[in-house]
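note to self: the first set is below, dont mix up w the second
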Amino acid sequence: MKLKAAASIKVGAELPPQVKNILQRQIDCYSGVRPKSIHTDAEWAKQKGFAAPLAQGLMSTAYVSQMMVDFLGMGFVKGGRISASFIKPVLAGDTLTMHGAVKSMEAEGDHTRVTVEFWCVSQEGVKTMVGTASGLAA
């Protein structure tokens, strides 16, 4: 698979959003079911002040990675980077939408590093994670 052509990418361009339903089954598979875990034990999560079990932060990161692979293909697989801040919890039953926009493009050796500013939003419009992700283009 070839790298995406840098000439086909424009600063400010928005990436197609990715929508994910956060199911308890997915959370369980991600971390393994354990008692007294805010991720997999609904009663324990409620005792700790959450309305439902929390999805692990790295699940959101994986969804952003998928968005970047869809955008840059092997350019993200081979040269991808992510810097993220988790700002609100994602709960079982939430619907999460990942958004991104091309922030910058800079020469890096024989390639161009494409940096995307991303943000994840719950079904209530609350940002849950923000950051940047980058990969290579030809």
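second set (the one i keep forgetting abt)
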Amino acid sequence: MCAIEMKPYLKRLLLSVSCTLVFFAAQAQSGRSPIEDIVNSIKTNRVGDMEKYFDNFVPITINNSQTLYSHNQAVEVLRDFFDKNNPKDFTVMDNGSPDNSSKFVIGYFNTPGGVKYNVYILMKLKGTFMLQDLRFNKD
């Protein structure tokens, strides 16, 4: 009788362990750093994916014109920018972490129309990494 009662318990235990392993495997696959997430969001023209790294205010420079946008404004400005300048590819030229509290990427992307944009991304640690500077300047 004891062996019969153990079978449902073991099934539940195995199911719980399996679900936990699947969860951690999924987390490991999406284990990109925040700066890699931003780069990937630019490559794939997915502003919504980069929005989670926006602070209350986001400085965005487009063609040497810098403006400080609210979180929601930044989303709209970037959507508009990428609608007009859809990245065909993105090349990282340099990246680094001068200290444990900041990360940067310098790169460029080309549009299907042949326009090249130099890109600078800076993130700083504020509890979690938040976007602190985003620049797109025509080459």
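remember for set 2: Confidence is low (pLDDT under 50) at residues 17-29.
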